[in-house]
Amino acid sequence: MERENRDDTAGGGGESETQPVISSVRDDKEDELEGSAAKTKSDSVNEPGEAEHPEQNDTTTGGESEIKSLSSTTKERVLPELTLVLIGDTNSIEVGSKNILLDHDEQTQQFSFSLYDLCGRHISVINMLGQQNTDKFPLNQGVHAFLLLLPNGLQNSHYSSGVQWLEKTFGKESLAYLMTVVTHGSDEECDRALTDLKANSSFVEKRFHTCTKSMRDENEIIALLGKVDVMVSENDPHCYNGLTCGENKEHEEEETSDSSVFHQNQTDEMENRGATTEIECEPVNEPGDAENSEKNNESTTAVGEPEVMSTIPLASNEKGLELSAGETDEDKQINNESSSIMSEQSTEETDKLKDSSSTSQTVSTALKELDQQEERAVTTEEKSDPVNNSGDAEAKEKGTLHMDTSGNTDQPSEKISEENNSKNQSQREKLLHRLQLQEKQKLSPADFLQIGPPVKQDHETSEKDLAHTFLQRLMMLDYRARYIPVRQDSDEVSHSNPVAVFDSSNAKESLIDAFYETSGECDQLKQTHIHPMDVQMAVFHCSDSFLKQNMMTKLSQCQYALPLLVPDPVTMDVECPLWTFRQIRKTWKKTQTKDNSSIITMKSLPICEAETPMVSFFRLGSLSVSKSELINTLINDRHNTFFHRNCPDSTKSCHLMDGVAEIAWYCPAGKPNDAFTDCIAFCNLHGDALSKKSCKKQRDMLIENSSINVVLLPTLRKGASSTTVISALLESPKPLICLITNDDRRVIQKTEGKYIMGLKDRSQSDVSKELKKIIGKILSGPHTSFQLETMAKVSGIRVDEDDAVCQKGKSAAKKVMNALQEMDVSEIKDKFLPCQGRLWHEWCRINKELHHLKGNIEKEKSEKQKELMTIRQKQCDASCSELMKLFIESLSSLPSTDKEYFLKWTQILIDALSTDNLTSILQNYDDKWSEVLALKEKHDKSDQLNRKQTEFEQVSSKLQSATFGLEHIFREMGQIYEAHKSLQKQTQRRQTDWSKYPELAAELMISGHPMELMDGDAGHVPLTWISSLLEEVIKRLGDQRVFVLSVLGVQSSGKSTMLNAMFGLQFAVSAGRCTKGAFMQLVKVSEERKKDFRFDYVLVVDTEGLRALELAGNATLHHDNELATFVVGLGNMTLINIFGENPADMQDILQIVVQAFMRMKKVQLSPSCVFVHQNVTDIAAAEKNMDGKRRLQEKLDQMAQLAAKEEVCDAECLSDVIAFDVQKDVKYFAQLWEGSPPMAPPNPGYSESVQELKNIVLSKASQSPGITLSQFKSKIQDLWKALMNEHFVFSFKNTLEIKVYRNLEVQYGNWTWALRSNMLTIENQLYNRIENGKLDKVELSYLSKEMSKTYEEIKKEMRKYFDDDRDKEMLVQWRGRFENKIKEFHDEQVRGVKRKLDEVIQQKTACKKLDGQKTEFENKLLQKSKELAQQLKDKTQDEEELKKQFDSVWRGWVRELTADIKPIEDINLEEDHVIILYELGFEWALIGESKSSGRYKNISEIGNYFDYVTLTKYQEHCEENQQLQESERDTRGQRTISQLRDRVSKAGRKVLNYFKGSFHHEDQQLIRSLIDNVEKHSFDTIRSKPVATSGYSPTYLLEVAKNVKEKVTEFESKRKYALKKEFTVDLLLYVFDRAESWLSESHKKFKMNNDALTYLENKKHQYYNIFRTFYKGSSSAVVLGELICEKLKVSTVEAVCNKTAIDLAGKMRCSFPAFSGNRLNLEKHVLKSLAEKEDFRGFITYIHQPREQVERFIKEEVEKYIFTSHKDKARDILKKNVEDMKQFVSPTLFTATERVKTQRGHTDMWLEEFTSLLKDELMFEDICSQNFRDINNFDFLKEEIEKGLVLIMKEMSSLSLNNMSEFRLTPDQILIDQLCKCCWEKCPFCAAVCTNTIEDHSPDHHSVPFHRPSGINGWHRRGTVDLVIDFCTTSVASDKFFYPHYDSDEIIPYKQYQKGGDKYAQWKITADESKLTYWIWFVCRFQEQLEDHHEKKFQGNGEIPSEWRKHSKEEAIQSLDEMYNQ
């Protein structure tokens, strides 16, 4: 339809009907542009005859010639059915008369005769071939197809360049109309053309054609046209009407003619046609800026024909006037004098015309008739710009009709109207295209709530970026966003017309003629840049409702006028964007005079609810003054609230402001110099208010709703076009002020409320002053008020809030708010949000008290935790308020857009509910605070000050109660969730509701809503809620990396405003409330900037101010320190916001901040900071800035020194604490407001500072990896838990760091196991070599070389782990340490294996004598066996008889062989023990009693050692004291004796008290430590003895015994007590017992390897078999084979078992849960095992000897794994190793045999080869070959051995896994060596074992995740038998004390436990109110056994709380998993 309508209007060659009118005034150059007259946007309406025969008026040949040649007989215009544009290379076509498509080479457009003759269709062909370098080409009609002609062979390159040129020239949309045609010679083939073109992504195969270059073939052309028709039918629209080459051609032609010449020609033409119809009209303006007619007047008077202005026929094209269509109100102002002359001349000429014309139509006196005439004329309206055509528009509005010579009325032309609409839309689309905007794809806040490219303040912006730059700068509160310099991408766009150069060579024109000639100017005109208000309105139209709302809020903050009534650019329907005003709140101070005194009342209202007077301004006709500029002087004469003609970048072309009514409010500050005493709305209607189409609805609505109407018009006289409007206004009761531009009269009040004032020859300030007086006078009396919300009730105007989605959200919000009707705001939270009020505050108080316990802390703790659960229960019971039910229901069910509206409406309605109350409370708050300050300044210490402070506290409390917002509802959600979550184990009630709350909040947070992180009212972080919320965010986004940016500063220093401006956030900064607590908001990093950062989001944390006024009465420095530490700890970077320049004001905040950074350093967190110094005057002064930075540096360094003392840290300056550069990390900000609020706009310097700061922040952020959301969640928990305790540094536990470290421990275990298992394999091989005699020395270098491959692989894995792990930034702190640890482990393994192998070599050397004898033994035994076999041959066949015979001779053989060798005796350790003890002086009876009782075996696990202690020392001490008293009695006086007695008595009592009650826990621990140390030292001494190589000697035990006795004696010397002999005896027997098994095994090994008799006895079975074989008559080969098999059997079994032990250990190490993790994981499984067995003795062993219990656990689990739970897997491993061994031996046999056969060797050679091949895998004892030298068939020998191997392997297949215990390697010992090489230090309080996997993990402190009650380890209260039940983690958070030593008089606070000594300082015990349920269960389950063990009681302060007994064993075991996962 679009194409058809356009063509109907256009005529044949374009819109040539307008050409006769235009061409007569054009320069000859325009003749080249054939038919281009249609490009003017004024489709002139000709008189009837002219319309039918336009060619009669055509004085040019362009458009006419085409039509005549096409149809000379009909002389009628013919419409083209198709318009084809030929583009491409001129070489692609042969132009000629026979060419059907193009028969000429002129670059014009014309109808094709050839195509008409071919198909009978009217087809227009436009030749643009070879125009790739042409920037401009006229294209005046729709194009159906662009034919891209490509020469064959060059199609690829030409296609790409052709498509690029087409897209660049006509726009991307034109590509949809592209048809590709490859042309070729008649003798050429172009089969590959299609294939080649398919490689281009933009190529469409069905839009491809080939034909010959000559284009003579009709079939080819018909086929081509067929394809074009298909393409046209597929396209929508069917033809392309977009931008053309030289896309602003329309603008060029609009401005081609001077207005005066144009109108003169029009007048002459009408006279020639005998036109008699003339009308009277005022000087004409374009509606978009009708006020700007002075520009038109200027151009008119220049040629001396101003009278034409009053006699303009309707058919005239107003564009000739060069009026600026669409400019907001003004263009360029000219002097009033020339304007008045023009107006007078126009008026006179109009009167003449009225008198002389009998047919002239006069203006009706009734406004109604005027409107009716406008409606009849509206269809004839023509526009010269996309929005309007001023001349025709006004003519039609005044009822002008065309009359022919007969007086008949011309019928309205619908064609022209439709064409205008199409052109308007095209122009609008062109504007949006230039701005890269799309109406269909609305911009949303999400498009700008992201980190995008930086906004450049001082650089020009390209047009395509203009809209986004405008919005970005607006969001940053930069009111200069309207004045953005634009970089012109081409010379088509310019800010001003270029200067034409006069051609002096043209002799036909004189200089004067040329000077006055204006027709040539059309060639010089260029397209203007985009009007600033077009940018604003284009963005407005292309934004969704939420972005519009944000945009309007920012415009309001910039003190700009806001669109109140906006015509739809397409339908012209008027809309009131009421929704966009909803976020705006205005605050002002109203001044009232009463009793000669001024009363100032503060008001703060949502602007939609404010009832204010409204003053509306209208323009009637053309004006020489700027209406908008005049209004600005009334509001703020220093700021352009309304954009006007004199603003920067104003142009005469504005398309989107005509008919827009803007509104702005004046808000007084309550000062004497206020312009008005109350808030006033000023409304400005843009355009001519007389315009029916663009302004009527708006005019009528504003007149009706205004308090005062102000009308500006050129003259005021009857009969003028404005008369009817003025008359209507005069009849209205509303006050009226008429401002007449051409009148110089002073203010005249005609009647009451009706004023006239002339503007001629008056200054603007004078006019403004008079206007203020008039308005003030009128408003001081009765007047109507205006309220924005009433716009919803105005008929004929659409309100955006009427949209269904908005109404749905509003309805849901109202439903929620209905529950609050008629409620006092201060009571709402108590009634409807009960969970966050008193209950939550009480919960927070008790929770904080948990960290400051005294007395019986576990009992008190248990009671408080019970109270907490009670409160949670009450919260659950109270969590069903109607408000929350409705809110959650809507939040859960509404779609996302509806939900956004719902939330916005909820906040709007809440604000409306609390506005009145809050305003009065704030007023009262200010008053009370002022009174308190006044009294303080007077140093008043009377009761009055206390009373006033109390009143202030009450008001402050009321303010807190009345402060009610959406954040409180979300807070309630959090509390409901926390309450139910904490009771989850007890109840599942309503779980489906509350469990979804985090999901709902997470969705909102992701969409850009700020979420409360810290409750500002309670001063508490709801950890459970925040953790669940972030977990849900992670579920939706993934565990994204975020850069956390936090802000810190004093209250009301502009922190939230700064963040909002920086990132476009929505942190609350209004409603009279400062931020309380902390809020967090996500800002996404845009895709284009992700490459610049290593994180995905910036998470901004906004916080409440330090030194908050609300907390003045009860806040402490601790609160500020707490908040600062929390905020600084959270952020990767913290902005420190300082307000003002006074260093004294900064001191408090700086000290708090520096102390927070110092704490971060001590807990190894390293955030960065930037100091933002706001409200600094003269920030441009470099010298002052340098001085300010110097003073700031000095102050920071001073604060660092103070904080260092507070935190006990060494720091001389801030740079010692954090990386800080005062030159780079300090940013100075100008003050926010440019003037005094409330009317001051934001300071542009502030916006620049914000952008600079943002760039600094992002630049620093680009160097940081940020943290993951899960890490952020952990950091919140760690920081807050630590802050709950008094000592943050000691209390901080970085769970994230702990988790990363635990994972590193697991990796460390994997790396060390890889090294260990490889070393075990190497050790096996070398062991076999040594045993086989192939190796007699092991070098460290060799071992290192063998390990090098594995070691390098491990190092590579380590590098990869540390470099690539997602936590690599945190891992870096341990990298060097773990690399060293791996190196140490590697070196230790190498040294350890060398040490073992050296012992084997030493052992082998020691056995050389026996080895030499072995050969002799074997030779003799073989010989004797052979002889015996021959002797008994054929004598008996009975096996038993043979065995007897062999046994009888065997004893003789052994005696014979060992006759000269002394046998090695067995040892009797029991006897040696007794003898050694006796030799040391212990009685036989004492020794015997100890051995018989067996008590010594448990000496390390005894609970109470008091029975081993003797009081001898005490008695001696008493005796010495008595002797001292006696000796002194005779020599001293009574007084001296008395003093001495007292002193001695006091000392005695002290010792006695020590032994009273019970033995001190400290002593128990010391004795136990003595036992452990003695045991370890003794065992190490025994193991160092060469028992396996040299045999056992009793002297070894004697040496150990002496050492033990010395240790005991040394121990006693340091104590006040002695140990009984029983203790020393039991300790020695205990040590002997522990060493016994090792001594026995070692001696057994020694005897086996060195005792000939033992060796021979072991060989008896072997030689019996040899004897039997000989007896059977077997050959030597058979005997040798059997002998080899016997030896192989032994060594193979050992090799398989050793290999199986390694494999099983590896398998369990990797897959068995208990062994596959770190040390903590092993600990967990050990404790689980103990709990499952409920084995108290095992527990005691674990408590006192943890390593022993762990080793026992490993052995048990290995045994269970091998023989029970995984026996099948173990058997499979064994079978695999057996098979591997078989696969190894068989090839070895073959290889040895083949080598011997090849070399024709003998038996010796075969044995040598065979043993050599076995050297690494199997031990093989030498065989003497002298008895087998007769063997020459080695294949037979091999077969015999293979037969034996089959039997061996069959026997081994049933080998028991028990056999492994008999050999060198066992899986349990391998795992013990691997897993127990860790830290075994115990907590000095509870004896919990450090769970660090690294044995020596210095400098890290010892730590354990969960401690246990100290009483488990025997801790009790001094002087009592009361066991301690306090957990260490609870104690260190309490206010209790402890004695660091048993004999210490000094007590140490638990909070400073590190001061107790080294053993305390080496531990990090984190204060934590949580406790491991496992140990609670243990204490309750084994209470009696523990009491018996320690001989003490759980009583008194150690009484077990009743709550403890509720835990089951299952819960205890489950708590272990929770411990490990934390």
Structural summary, described in words:
The chain is an alpha/beta fold. Helix content is 51%, strand content 8%. A ten-stranded mixed sheet has the order 21-22-20-19-16-18-17-12-13-23, with helices on both faces. Strands 7, 24, 25, 26, 27, 28, 29, 30 and 31 form a nine-stranded mixed sheet that branches. It has a six-stranded mixed sheet with strand order 2-3-1-4-5-6, sandwiched between helices. Helix 22 links the parallel strand 19 (708-713) and strand 20 (736-740). Helix 16 crosses helix 18 and helix 26 (838-849) runs antiparallel to helix 27.
Summarize the structure.
With 2022 residues, the chain is an alpha/beta fold. Helix content is 51%, strand content 8%.
Keywords:
about 50% helix; flat; 10-stranded mixed beta sheet; 9-stranded mixed beta sheet; alpha/beta; about 2000 residues
Count of runs of 4 or more consecutive helical residues? 69
Tally the beta strands: 35
Gyration radius, in Å: 52 Å
Unreliable runs, pLDDT <50, ≥5 residues? 1-77, 244-414, 494-500, 518-525, 985-991, 1110-1115, 1528-1538, 1543-1558
Strand content bin: 5-15%
SSE order and pairing:
Layout: H1 2-10, H2 19-23, H3 48-52, H4 62-70, E1 82-88, E2 109-111, H5 113-119, E3 123-127, E4 145-151, H6 155-170, E5 178-184, H7 192-197, E6 208-212, H8 218-234, H9 249-254, H10 259-272, H11 293-301, H12 336-356, H13 367-377, H14 390-397, H15 414-434, E7 450-451, E8 461-462, H16 463-475, E9 486-487, E10 493-494, H17 511-516, E11 527-528, H18 532-541, H19 545-557, E12 562-567, E13 574-576, E14 585-594, E15 597-606, E16 614-619, H20 627-635, E17 661-666, E18 680-685, H21 692-705, E19 708-713, H22 723-731, E20 736-740, E21 748-751, E22 754-758, H23 764-780, E23 798-799, H24 804-817, H25 825-832, H26 838-849, H27 857-877, H28 882-893, H29 896-937, H30 943-962, H31 966-982, H32 991-994, H33 997-1006, E24 1011-1015, H34 1023-1037, E25 1041-1049, H35 1055-1063, E26 1077-1085, E27 1097-1103, H36 1117-1130, E28 1133-1139, H37 1143-1162, E29 1168-1174, H38 1182-1207, E30 1226-1228, H39 1244-1261, E31 1267-1268, H40 1269-1283, H41 1288-1291, H42 1295-1331, H43 1340-1364, H44 1368-1406, H45 1408-1432, H46 1439-1457, H47 1469-1479, H48 1484-1493, E32 1509-1510, ...
Parallel strand pairs: 1-3, 1-4, 4-5, 5-6, 7-26, 8-9, 10-11, 13-23, 16-18, 16-19, 19-20, 20-22, 25-27, 25-28, 28-29, 29-30
Antiparallel strand pairs: 2-3, 12-13, 12-17, 14-15, 17-18, 21-22, 24-26, 25-31, 26-27, 32-33, 34-35
